Amino acid sequence: MARYDYVEKAVKVTRREFLGVMGVAGAVLWTGAYVATDLVQDRTKYIKMRAQGIYKDDAKAKIRQSHNNQAVTDVYKKFAQNPLSHLAEELFHTKYVDRTKLV
């Protein structure tokens, strides 16, 4: 069996080269962080705009509570008997789905 000896060569980097490489690396990291923060700020801005629109529409609505809505009470009378019945649970209530990974 042959025997191989591996000897690492010393890498000589001058101070100027080191500063240049580190400056480029820092600029790349800063740019990535800036883009990421910009995306988060845009997302937050759109979420706030959507919430304001929903609140504005809700303030204009004549019926703002489901128990005062005649259409809802008619549906319960015709199909679901009463608000907490088994049939109402099956028809109207949903299960929680964790969507935190989508955000």
UniProtKB/TrEMBL annotation:
Taxonomy, superkingdom: Bacteria
Which keywords belong to this entry? Membrane, Oxidoreductase, Transmembrane, Transmembrane helix
Does the keyword field hold Transmembrane helix? yes
* Molecular-function GO term, any one: electron transfer activity
Among Gene3D superfamilies, the record links this protein to:
Iron hydrogenase, small subunit
InterPro entries (alphabetical): Fe_hydrogenase_HydB (IPR008953), Fe_hydrogenase_ssu (IPR003149), Fe_hydrogenase_ssu_sf (IPR036991)
Give the enzyme class.
oxidoreductase
- What's the name of the protein? Putative periplasmic (Fe) hydrogenase small subunit
Bilayer-spanning residue ranges: 20-40
Q: Which residues form the Iron hydrogenase small subunit domain?
A: 41-100
Which EC number(s) does the record attach to this protein?
A: 1.12.7.2
Q: Name one GO cellular component term.
A: periplasmic space
Name of the gene encoding the protein in the UniProt record: hydB
Organism whose genome encodes this protein: uncultured Sporomusa sp
Tell me the classification of the organism that encodes this protein: Bacteria, Bacillati, Bacillota, Negativicutes, Selenomonadales
Where, if anywhere, are coiled coils annotated?
none
